[in-house]
Task: structure prediction
Amino acid sequence: MSKKRKIISLAVWLSVVLLALVGVIMTNGSEKTESIREIMRDAVLHDRNKISLFGYMEVNPALISAFTVTGILLAAALLIRLFVIPKFKYVPGKFQLLLEQLVGFFDGLGRSNSPHRNCFLNVYIFGAGVYIFFGTLFELFGIQAVTTHGISIALPAPLSDINAAIALGCLSYLVIMSGGIVSNGIKGIGKTLKDFSLPISMSFRLFGALLSGLLVTELVYYYSGLSFVLPVVVAVLFTLLHALIQTYVLTMLTSLFYGEVSEVHKGEKKAKANSAIKGEH
Result:
């Protein structure tokens, strides 16, 4: 039986390789509607392939992806809150355990980096982390959309657009600043403004990582000799790797800087305690 299985598996692999070679030969002479330079340029700038938003304006495909991912996540959160959480048990099932591990990871990340003030921080990094992870995985589904020029394209990850990456980086920076203001008042603003390059570095790190995976995948798809089997492996590996790394990096940096600017020093703690005692008297 083992020999028969080996022969069958070998025959299957040979068939796959043969079909891939036939596909390469048959598509080798096909015309490319766009050059690789134009494809790469549009992947970065989105100045050609745009999508009509309800017939009112032309927008980047990543904006449609952002709306879609946001809607899916909000709907999933509502369904989980209404139908799953009320049925939680003392001995958790697989899905309950997965949710608890996910929440526990971001809660632990926030508490370890900002032990004195972390309630809002934990909520934010959970939301940002989930959005980055599932937003990055969104491009794997290859959902098609038609551009204003009549070309069918696959919707990219929302954060592969520089505008979305900058928006998330600036939002994280504002969250960090809010922690400094609540804990230290005007001094908290000064502490946050010392790292004025933080939103730029966070934005471009996120954008560059996601864009690199998109460009490599587009490059592999463009050449017919590589456009069989290999793109699946490349797309899945790059996307999963970027989803995990960028989720961890942005949430870790946000919680780390939030903990630094929201920390109250000993002298300030004593002054606040004395003022509170005087207020009681």
